[in-house]
Structure formats: C-alpha cells, structure tokens
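Hey, resending since the last one bounced:
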Amino acid sequence: MKNKFASVVFALILTACGSANVSTPLPSSAVETAVIATLTQQAAAQLPSATPESAMPEGNTYETENISFLIPNGIATDATSALTSEYEYPYINPSVGDMAPHLKFTLNAYELADTLLKPQIILFHAEAYAQYSEYTATTINLLQNLQYVDGQPLPEPLAGQLFTAQIHRVDFQNSRGVRYLTQVAQAIGPANNHEMFYYFQGVTNDGKYFVQAILPINAPFLASNNSPDAPLPADGIPLNESDFTGYLNAITEKLNATDTFSFAPYLDHLDALVESIQVKGY
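The structure tokens again:
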C-alpha cells in the first residue's frame, strides 16, 4: 500500500536466545528465515490500517420472508415493502397499463433526498414480467442467458436510456445480472444528479425471479438538476445540444473515470447492497 535493520536483527537474536539454548547457535538458514519473518511482520505493522472507505461497509440487514439485503450505514435506515401492480422503470407512461403484481422495497431515509426516482428494490416473477411486452420478454431472455463480460457494450434493451456508464456484471448469492449508471431522458438535456441513478437488473439462478434495484447516485462534476440555471461545477461538462452524442460520450467517459468513493453514495457501497440481495421468493 499506499528500519532499522540492525535493530530488527538484534531484537531477533535476543528473542531467539530467550527461547533456545544459548549454547546452541541457530543455523544460518533459520536465522535468515526468522529475519525475513520479523521484517515482514514489522513492515505490516507499519502499514496504514484499512480506511472506512476501503473496508467492507458495515450496516444492518433488512430481512423478510421474501428477500434479505444489507443496508450499509449512512445509505438508508431500513425499507418498507409493498405488493403493487404499478408500472416500473423503464416505463414512464405505458399504454399497456399496470404490470403483474410484484414486490417493491423502498429504502427509508435514503442518503439523497432530492431525486427523480425513489430508491427501490423490485421483485417480479420473471415469467410474468416477460409477458408484459416484447421489451420485457427480451430483457428476461438476455438475463437468463447472460454472456456479458465487463468491457463489452451492453445489448439492447439492457442498456440505459440517456447514457450507460460504470457497467459491471454482478454474480452473487442466488442471482446474476448487470449494473450501471444511467438517467431517464424524454428530451435533450444535461446529465445531472437529480435524475441519475444506479440501476441493477438480474434474474435468480433458477430463472424464476427478476430483480431490479434503482438507487439514486450523485457524481461531483454534475449539476444538481436539469435546470439551465443550475450551476455547473468547475470540472463539469457543458451541455452541447449541437453535438449531443459527443456530449453524452464525454459524460460517460468521465463517469467511468470517476473514483468509486467520489460518488455519493459510494459506488462500492451500493454494490455491497446489491451483492447482498438474497431472493427467497413469494
């Protein structure tokens, strides 16, 4: 991470003499081995201990008869569950109406308050989700036969709406899928912290359940909202409507280069939450 040799050797010799017959000298190979071990221990002791940011996050486990997951400290307090037929992202106002009954777990007292989408984990029967539309059927088929490797472009319709950044395959517990950062878009506008979120979609290994996680996230270089008057940080990227594709590519590249602990909440901590999900069924 990011010695006194004679003193270490002397301390080693004193230790060896105290634990062995002083009339029997240690073989040179034993001395070399012991010196190396002592130096290694001393160097390890001088290394800085793991910071809270680099350690596995502590938190509380939320658990019901249907699901369990870790909520890292500071992200939320707990969750509220509901059985609903509301339509869910990526649908905004679908003509096909309500979706099949599904479970929704909304995180309470989430770290970010001013966000377009609520922090939620959503659990569907995969077969029922697939029957909603051609889009959802393709999504389930792709996830059940997931061949994605980090670094590849995501196939449609798994990719996000406005941009797709920080793409990472997630295999955990009894599920598998992909996560990325994206934003809902209905018109040309700036990438911003009010609308951006961490999105996971996956299926359980038995293929029975479809899991979504929608977790709002902020990046330090984005404006707070999509208002033209919202101040842009010094290292922000100005909206370029005449080259919107180039603008989105620049946003994606900067998000991909942003350190995990520069996001709020930390990207690694959101991963820890998602990776802890254990689907029990309903």
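The chain has six helices and ten strands.

Sorry for the duplicate.
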